[in-house]
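2024-03-11 09:14:02 DEBUG pipeline.ingest accepted 1 chain
2024-03-11 09:14:02 DEBUG pipeline.ingest length=136
2024-03-11 09:14:03 DEBUG pipeline.predict start
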Amino acid sequence: MSFGIVNPKALGEPKGWNNGLIAPQGARLLFIAGQAGWEEDATGPPAGFAEQFARALDKVLLVLREAGGAPTDLARVTIYVTDLAAYRAGRKALGEVWRARLGKHYPAASLLAVSGLLDRGALVEIEATAVLGPER
């Protein structure tokens, strides 16, 4: 299945995301709830920012695979962070985490800085929308 990528030249070249994505006809949508990088009931001290990003992304991919999808089926990702400076400082490590799991697949993406997340100790939460092929 292939997406139609929409990146208007007037918006500049995106790096690590795309501006829009058109799903093929007959595709099914999978909405993946926010997956936290740390859970309130986890033992030990909360992991660092890159580790939490990896953990949240792995949980998104687990839901996706359970539905029969693959990482390249992700169409939209929203990343919520409690510390924008930590996100910016860790962009190289976060890019490595991303590429290890998704290669060069970049969905439409949004980043939001929030004052807090539900789970105590969570620094990042990721929600996503995937487009899956027709049910078999």
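2024-03-11 09:14:41 DEBUG pipeline.report The longest strand covers residues 28-36.
2024-03-11 09:14:41 DEBUG pipeline.predict end
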